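User
Here is a favour to ask of a fellow structure person. I am asking you to supply a protein in sequence and C-alpha cell form. Please set it down just below, with no commentary around it:

Assistant
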Amino acid sequence: MDTLSYKTISANRATVNKEWVLIDAEDQVLGRLSSEVARLLRGKHKTNYTPHVDCGDNVIVINASKIKLTGNKWEGRLHYSYTGYPGGQKRQTPLEIFTKNPVALIEKSIKGMIPKTKLGSALYRNLYVFEGAEHTHEAQQPTEIKLR
C-alpha cells in the first residue's frame, strides 16, 4: 500500500492561498452575517484548513448601515464594557452603538466569533467593514459572495 497518499497536508504561511471576498450586508441579519464572515476569516471553508495558521480570506463588508436585527434585539440586548476603574462599567444597546457607529456593531459581533489569541488578532486585521456601498479595495478585485 502506498503510504504517501495518506499524508495529512498542513498549510503554512507560504502555501496558503488568500483571496479577497466582498459581502453586501444590506438586509442581512447581524448574527447570521457575522458567523459567515467569521468562517471566511478563519478559512474553515477551505480544504487545506489548518487551525494554527491564518489561512482565511480577506473579507470586505459593505452597507453596514443597512443590517437588521430580529425580534426586540435593538432595545432588549445589552453590550457591556468596563474601563477598569471603579464605577467604570458601561451598558449600551445595539441601537445606541448603531446610531453612533454602524461599523462598530458588525465588528464587535465578528470579533466575538474569532479566537481570542494572537491568531485571532491577525484574522481580525483581514476584516474591512464600510458603512456605505463604496469601499477602498477595488485594486484587489474582490469576488462577491451572496449569502443565503
Notes: The two ends are 43 Å apart (CA to CA). The beta strands are 20-24, 58-62, 79-82, 89-92, 127-129, 143-145. DSSP finds five helices and six strands in the chain.
